[in-house]
Amino acid sequence: MEEQSHIRKRLVCLRRTDDASQAERACATLKGVKGVVDARPVNSHRLSLTYSLEFLTFELIEDLLRELGFYLDNSIFAIIRRNIYQYLEDTAREKIKVDEENRKLVCQVDTETLQDEPEKYWNNYR
What we know:
This protein has four helices and three strands; from the N terminus they run βαββααα. With 126 residues, it is an alpha+beta fold. The chain has a single domain (3-123), classed as Alpha-Beta Plaits (2-Layer Sandwich), CATH 3.30.70. The chain is globular, with a radius of gyration of 16 Å.
């Protein structure tokens, strides 16, 4: 039971778009991240994510998704949910004494992200 107290299951909400496979792509990306136990699409814009607090936080996962070009839901309910998750996780991580200094995000993600594209485009005009 001790190990289960470090595991969190969260719902990640992406912005609704015409891309029906965005949740599947996000899950495929997150499965390569150290600390992710499971990632499954719920529908085209939501995914169920199970991860360990020893390695990750919900905030870190959302930052990674943003960096990789996924757009997160920014509705008022999503913002409230994020704040509650952050508070609960900060408290839990304090209790389990996670060493923030030595924490590194370890993942197998393609370094060619969607956000690199605009930079390449603008380099032609500089």
